From TrEMBL:
Residues 14-306 form the Inosine/uridine-preferring nucleoside hydrolase domain. Keywords: Glycosidase, Hydrolase. The keyword Ion transport does not apply. SUPFAM superfamilies: Nucleoside hydrolase. Coiled coil: none annotated. InterPro entries: Inosine/uridine_hydrolase_dom, IUNH, Ribo_hydro-like. It is an enzyme of class 3 (hydrolase). Its EC number is 3.2.2.-. One of its GO terms (molecular function) is hydrolase activity, acting on glycosyl bonds. It comes from Bacillus bruguierae. This is Nucleoside hydrolase.
Amino acid sequence: MELNALKKVLFLGDPGIDDSLAIIYGLLHPDIDIVGIVTGYGNVTQEQATNNAAYLLQIAGREDIPIINGAKIPLSGEFITYYPEIHGQEGLGPIRPPETIKANVKPFCEIFEVIKRYKGELIIVDTGRSTSLATAFILEKELMKSVKGYYIMGGGFFVPGNVTPVAEANFHGDAIASNLVMQYAEHVTLIPLNVTNEAIITPHTVTYIAKNTKTNFNKLIEPIFNYYYVAYKKLNPKIGGSPIHDVLTMMAVVNPSLVEYVYRRVQVDVGGLAKGESIADFRPQPSAEAMKNWIRIGWKLHYKQFLEDFIRIMT
Ligand code: BDR
Ligand code: CA
């Protein structure tokens, strides 16, 4: 186990199964203090994402954590594709949050208040489409420099995409926004598909967690994982479990040696056949540009450490 100071985390996401698991992991982790959740469109609509986040906070008894309204549509104005076949009709697999759920929702500008409140110590974790984060840069580019670090799930290197042959869903959903964030954000850790695809939780592990967990989330774990696994099996019949992309991104904040990294500038293709593709220069002699504005890119996952940490926190 690695010792960490308490991390103040502003979470942006589109819950969504793995976003929800990332929120659950963050709420349960003794070294993470979630200080706000910004809900955006993506896996589901922004409104459904908000309801799901509110439901998780209610289960945890943490309604004190503000939910902040994020983006409802991408910067490009393109029509949105949602993913009920992977995340369920409402984003939590077979589970529907009760209709009585009331979210303590704040307007978008609350993001800036949170950043000011935790100036110099705030970590932003973004596991959704990049629109909300890009909008924050568009409005308050200088203030965004006082964020201590950004952990972003997106892109993929030397692996196929998951929504097109070359693009990962978060970068494809609003490629203009993702590219903007990759150019403007400082102290970025990118957790791409080439590592998150390896962050697999098998049905065996799910059964173990469901049996042994002492957390308030015990009733959710098995149904949402089962739904997610069936969905991934359809995409890849050989897969042995479900990849928890967004949890790994949250985990990386408090586990510095969980992932090995490389350092390169990252750009995102914004149009045409390759829209959403993440590009970095990995030639043996990369251009000088490739080493400027570099981003810390997740390269290799230490699986045993990942699995042990996930089981420990979830139980
Ligand atoms: C990403 O896309 C979404 O479907 C997941 O929640 C994750 O953030 C993986 O490509
Ligand atoms: Ca997500």
